[in-house]
Design a protein that fits this description.
- The complex is a heterodimer of chains A (about 260) and B (about 270).
- With about 260 residues, chain A is an all-alpha fold.
- By secondary structure, chain B is an alpha/beta fold.
- Chain B is globular, with a radius of gyration of 20 Å.
- The chains are: A mainly alpha (about 260), B alpha/beta (about 270).
- At the A-B interface, helix 1 and helix 5 of A face helix 2, strand 6 and helix 3 of B.
């Protein structure tokens, strides 16, 4: 177990190596939060949104929380795997008596700890101070945190799956770009999914993206009935299981495909 | 220690890569060609041997080493490391082998070298005693102290190589694979690295398999040689035997006594010997 803790520490240190990058990221996240807040406020004051599914405060809460939660859930595992497979450096990981996927997870967890400290907490404080809104449904906070944990795992598995496709394609960032656009829209990190046209909303019910942002953020931001909360968490668990099985299949088939070039 | 123990056994290894042909133009018809990187290679290596693995570029050396280290899976054939199979005892084998790639580093790029060592200490469950003993030994021979608090990013190639070598030997592996360990290294550092490998081999009875293009590496280090070309194993025997064979077969050489190894290897690559 201790080796995975070491990997967590390495993940933490790797994130902090270039302090300039940490500051730049923090500022870009603050600007993005401000931008999102301004755009949605403006949309409401201009009267562009007719018969919204959620009222103004609920939407603003949703948007602010989605932006803050994204700093936790974000996952750069796709780029990490791509880089390793493309350069062949994956060889140096495969000769270790460790699980490759667990190693990635440990590093990602370490990375997340630093992200929470450096981005999530400052953003939360900033949002609280500047908006003076009641952001979180406190009586649903427990469910919200559980849901974030599930969303975090789903996001990790999703990234792992896309990343591992590099066994076949060597480079998967174009796939990631394509899926990235769909992901950003359908996950609800930009726009609350409840505002989608009915058709799109129905399609989205059968896709995993919703489980990553829309569910945890809604639980945190908007009041819900208890049975709806349980239902949402159930959906997350189902996706977790499906993606886990899919990931294992891809790993076992892809492992044989590996070509380590050079040398 | 029983020196007759076999540490590596390879039987009928094969590996074929499917390569898509690209002629530079845009075409929708995909044409593939099969490249047989390794065709039916069998050999065994005894415990405590230092074996040189040589062959021209693209002969299949690295592919074979990658299969021996469990990075690539052979299409056919079997590999036994200390009697264990990668399919069943992968983790156990990994704890017993050390690998150094001359062209890649196993150390975390942005993190001080010493941190990577600590990671390996926990990863391979190295006792404090053994860790300290090894670290002291490596510090003496490889000047680790000079650079172990810097990340690999800032090290010279020679320093990085030494750090990698230390990382691979930290857990006293029984078998050490070295893939071009002296590539791009200056003469003095090379000598250090060779002496170190020799010392480890003598003290710990470590089996060493190295691939190299540097003939002097082989002359200084190796007892045995495996020569591979076009994916076939064309020679498996000791260095002295090879020299003798050459002397008897190619009587044209003027002084049979000291034929340069480099000359022999050139002849092998050209296809006029073996």
């Amino acid at each position: 177990m201790k080796k995975y803790v070491d990997y967590m520490k390495i993940g933490m240190k790797e994130h902090l190596v270039y302090s300039g990058a940490v500051w730049a990221r923090l500022f870009s996240k603050i600007i993005y939060l401000y931008l999102q807040f301004c755009i949605w406020s403006a949309l409401f004051t201009s009267g562009c949104i007719k018969n919204p599914a959620l009222d103004k405060t609920n939407i603003l809460r949703y948007i602010v929380i989605a932006t803050i939660v994204s700093t936790i859930i974000e996952c750069n595992v796709i780029e990490k795997i791509n880089e390793q497979i493309q350069s062949g450096n994956i060889a140096t990981e495969l000769i270790r008596p460790i699980g490759f996927k667990r190693m990635l997870l440990s590093r990602h967890l370490g990375d997340t700890v630093i992200k929470i400290l450096c981005y999530t907490i400052p953003l939360m404080i900033l949002a609280k101070v500047s908006t003076e809104m009641q952001l979180v449904c406190t009586y649903q906070l427990g469910f919200g945190i559980l849901s974030i944990l599930l969303a975090y795992s789903i996001q990790f598995l999703y990234s792992l799956i896309i990343g591992l496709l590099a066994f076949w394609f060597i480079v998967t960032w174009p796939i990631n770009m394509f899926l990235g656009a769909i992901y950003k829209l359908l996950s609800g990190v930009w726009i609350p999914v409840t505002m989608f046209p009915e058709m799109l909303y129905k399609v989205n019910l059968f896709l995993p993206f919703r489980a990553i942002y829309a569910i945890p953020v809604s639980i945190l931001a908007n009041g819900m009935k208890i049975n709806v909360i349980w239902q949402s968490i159930g959906i997350q668990i189902i996706w977790l299981v499906i993606l886990y099985i899919l990931m294992q299949c891809i790993w076992h088939v892809g492992r044989r495909k590996l070509v380590v070039q050079g040398g | 220690m029983d020196t007759d123990e076999i540490s590596i056994e390879a039987l009928n290894l094969r590996k074929t890569f499917k390569i898509r042909k690209r002629d530079g133009g845009f075409t929708f018809i995909k044409r593939y060609s099969q490249i047989e990187a390794v065709r039916d290679i069998s050999f065994s290596i005894q415990k405590g041997d230092i074996v040189g693995f040589i062959g021209p570029n693209g002969a299949g050396k690295s592919t074979t080493v990658k299969m021996l280290t469990g990075i690539l899976m052979p299409d056919d054939g079997s590999i036994r490391i200390n009697g264990m199979d990668y399919r069943k005892n992968r983790r156990d084998i990994m704890k017993k082998i050390g690998v150094v790639f001359g062209q890649r580093s196993v150390l975390c790029w942005d993190i001080p070298v010493i941190e990577s060592f600590r990671l390996f200490k926990d990863m391979y469950c190295i006792s404090n005693e053994m860790y300290n003993k090894n670290m002291n030994m490596f510090s003496d021979i490889l000047n680790l102290k000079e650079y172990m608090h810097q990340p690999p990013r800032l090290l010279s190639l020679g320093q990085r190589m030494k750090a990698d070598l230390a990382a691979a030997l930290l857990y006293n592996p029984e078998i050490l694979f070295l893939d071009e360990p002296t590539i791009g290294i200056d003469i003095l550092a090379k000598e250090r690295i060779r002496d170190f490998i020799k010392q480890i081999n003598q003290e710990c009875h470590t089996t060493v398999v190295l691939t190299t293009h540097d003939v002097s590496d082989i002359e200084v280090l190796c007892h045995k040689m495996l020569v591979i070309d076009h994916g076939n194993l064309i020679y498996d025997g000791t260095l002295s035997e090879m020299k003798e064979n050459y002397a008897t077969q190619c009587s044209d050489s003027l002084n049979k006594e000291d034929v340069e190894l480099e000359h022999i290897i050139k002849q092998i690559y050209k296809g006029s010997f073996l």
